[in-house]
Amino acid sequence: METAVLLISCPDRRGILAEITGFIAKNNGNIIHADQHIDFQKGIFFMRIEWELEGFSLKKSEIEKAFKPIAEKFHINYQLHFSDEVQNVAVFVSKYDHCLYELLYRFKVGDLKGNLKLVISNHEDLRETVETFGIPFYYFPVSKENKREVEGEEIELLKRENINLVVLARYMQILSGRFVNTFRNRIINIHHSFLPAFVGAKPYHRAYERGVKIIGATSHYVTEELDQGPIIEQDVVRVSHRDTLEEMIKKGRDLEKLVLARAVKWHLENKILVYDNKTVIFD
Amino acid sequence: METAVLLISCPDRRGILAEITGFIAKNNGNIIHADQHIDFQKGIFFMRIEWELEGFSLKKSEIEKAFKPIAEKFHINYQLHFSDEVQNVAVFVSKYDHCLYELLYRFKVGDLKGNLKLVISNHEDLRETVETFGIPFYYFPVSKENKREVEGEEIELLKRENINLVVLARYMQILSGRFVNTFRNRIINIHHSFLPAFVGAKPYHRAYERGVKIIGATSHYVTEELDQGPIIEQDVVRVSHRDTLEEMIKKGRDLEKLVLARAVKWHLENKILVYDNKTVIFD
Amino acid sequence: METAVLLISCPDRRGILAEITGFIAKNNGNIIHADQHIDFQKGIFFMRIEWELEGFSLKKSEIEKAFKPIAEKFHINYQLHFSDEVQNVAVFVSKYDHCLYELLYRFKVGDLKGNLKLVISNHEDLRETVETFGIPFYYFPVSKENKREVEGEEIELLKRENINLVVLARYMQILSGRFVNTFRNRIINIHHSFLPAFVGAKPYHRAYERGVKIIGATSHYVTEELDQGPIIEQDVVRVSHRDTLEEMIKKGRDLEKLVLARAVKWHLENKILVYDNKTVIFD
Amino acid sequence: METAVLLISCPDRRGILAEITGFIAKNNGNIIHADQHIDFQKGIFFMRIEWELEGFSLKKSEIEKAFKPIAEKFHINYQLHFSDEVQNVAVFVSKYDHCLYELLYRFKVGDLKGNLKLVISNHEDLRETVETFGIPFYYFPVSKENKREVEGEEIELLKRENINLVVLARYMQILSGRFVNTFRNRIINIHHSFLPAFVGAKPYHRAYERGVKIIGATSHYVTEELDQGPIIEQDVVRVSHRDTLEEMIKKGRDLEKLVLARAVKWHLENKILVYDNKTVIFD
Questions:
Q1: CATH number for the domain whose boundaries are C88-281
Q2: Residue ranges covered by each domain of chain C
Q3: Could you say which architecture CATH assigns to the domain C3-82?
Q4: Between D236, D245, D280, which is nearest B241 by CB?
Q5: Got the DSSP string for C252-264?
Q6: Which of C192, D11, D28, D245 has the largest count of CB atoms under 10 Å?
Q7: What phi and psi values does residue B230 have, to the nearest 5 degrees?
């Protein structure tokens, strides 16, 4: 069953919902999901609407043109996606392999619907793991001196391979503003704390020192400010004085890999709208 | 801000969403919430739509008549509610007071939007507690012999007081089919287990015996079959071998009162649709 | 069944556990709970041990003297408690009543084993609520100008009433160092965020702005630095873009009252050891 | 750091704890973990005690003999383990690979401390996955007719390979009483529901039909009665009417693999005591 998805945000006004659903109904579309949200504080309307293309009176190539007048009338920002599109994904890693394995496994078995085209690392350690899964592995050693240059090469590679989404699976390097802006809202990071607690380095150590009773993990889009981007998903697990730092880290890793996998999944299924440094998740 | 709410279920067909939102838009209604759901297995469409009455071109008394042609065209079951309606509520208790207190408190401070008209009990124990909150307390001792007769009196009282919702706050009597049918989908019970585990009596004792690692509580609408009605809400808490039966019961009570309060809240805010012995919760 | 409890912390050394349990066994004590913990990073040994007084060969008044040589040999910090001691508790509130109600209810029904002697507030709003439960209510209006003086009066009242534990049930004033030091490790606060996220004012507003997917509440002992004291308990609940700020606040309140009640319960049952700005909870 | 672990259960009597810790102290052992539990209902004492072997005055081979008099005096059931022992593990699978992958990964990176010696399956599907990790894969097709015979061959293989633990990672065959008794308390299964809810086949389908709001997974030791063995670990995740059956199954799989991995980990670290069809987990 092939479908089309419209992701919409615009100033909230009377009649938007009727106009959009009317557009699909008039063209004989069968809506299978529609979820809508209004942020009353900001006065913004959000929608995700998905309908079957079979029986729809417009061809895929005609939809955008036909929808444009409505978009203009309501000042709508929209994305139009089709279920047969497949996004190309690149994963960045350093030495930790738990998130990487989770992604390799999920792409392999089709739980994540995308094309995992390549893995980039600043270390050689995980080459064999990646290549065992038949995925090309690129080694880009990064130092203070060559960082700008290496990032340039990475961007070039990502563009050449038509990468749509970059996933930082515990990649221990901070990306430059140039890199972040090239893939705005298309870089997902996993941070190993319950943000905004423990922004930056060594969050488990700091959580242990602080004596928290619950630890967490956060997946978010990367922006220029460290660990300040729109949060996609968070999860937590209970710890106690019985947990050593090592045990906290192990518990945390089980969170990290699931929280990252969920974020990547929603992104690839076009279920996320970003606005105002937040996310609307149409789950 | 006064609003109207339509709760809708019907066979899923093309154009329903457009037709309903078009009806509101055409009459100049400002939609503030719309949530819709399709059960594809059963082919049923569900919707909750809420719009402001200010500026709406139909009077409250005219809405139903104007909507009827759409309802007939799509074979829609619907409920129409207005935000200024207040439901009358009766609470049934026996001797446990934790759920009762939670409800008394929440009705008092307005967290639960309803009119708590009376409390009925088969024991005298909680009279003072109830009366301290200024709520009338009715004592109906029940025995095997008088059960049918007493239930008749209770139904009569509930009807006389125009009760819309009955809440069983750990009421330790099983209601007859006659009672249940009189208030179909309008009796909410709290069961002190994670249903369908431990249906019936003494669920904590049985959970303790079975050695479960998590216990739960379940709020549900009451049907003729014990603990088999549509589930509204559930929640759980972790236990371990360190918890004695008494400690499990205490942990469970903290769940029970919150799980029951949430169910009552959603019911009073017209956010629940029942179908096929399940619930759709438009939260 | 009357019992004695020893709470112990000391530098970790061979033979401590054997020595302590030997002391109790030698005097014919029946140990009913023993929980012990070692912080290997710091090299500290912690223990909570509880035994029956019936059949114990030492009188209550003799235990401390008999234990002293062991305490000295191992440089043990200890607290000795008896199950028939009842602690005196004072609750501080401002205008929010959800935590207050929870405490009033739990002290009333005996779920919290203590003597709730009085409630202090900087507003008159909750007088009736408190007095309905038969608890004395003291109104101490606080301003910048009179703060030092008022705190002096409060401390005097607390001492006159032999208060052992102060509970800040959403009390919206910051206590001075003098107050905090008078009741070191005996003031429990509830902070309406998942600390260390959102220290200070308006945590729900900031959580809403940040777009977090989970909110929390934290109970902790009060120290001179705001929201930096030893954490006793935390809990969380999921939120989404569907939750308005108001709904987040409501969800959070249900957490706050339970998280605070758990902390007070453990404190009153002598289950908490504080060290190094952390807690060991012997649950 | 090499250590010894004693796992103990016996009738509760005065002086046990002192006697056991005295035994270790007398021989100059440094206790690094001690956790003890009493089931007062049944009058049973449980303990896990771990101490360093360096500096201990008894050789490994002498410990058991030296401890025997205490064991006899108190009627103690005990297991003595050493941290340098490595258990041999066999995993049984059918066609689902999510639990298998999790185990293969964790054994490979050393998060699970054991020797994964072989994988047995009643299907050929996962051979490549297993062999990629360098683990021998055995295919034993099972039918009604040959079941008894095949199980005999499997038992023989497991004995030949000195298997200490059998893990059923979504193995879709019911083991005979003979098999179960050969590996009593050494077969861990993952059941894809929150037991005792939905014992037996197709638990997700039945959870979906019942309209539950939370689903779960349960790891347990296998006994002759289906899904009735001692529960080791459980976890849950929230679902709603928005989740189709397929989505529930996917959410559930993320639980299954973690809940199974935790159980296997605790077993291999000798942290589980079974009694009375329950478990004590010394975490």
A1: 3.40.50.170
A2: 3-82, 88-281
A3: 2-Layer Sandwich (3.30)
A4: D280
A5: HHHHHHHHHHHHH
A6: C192
A7: -60, 125
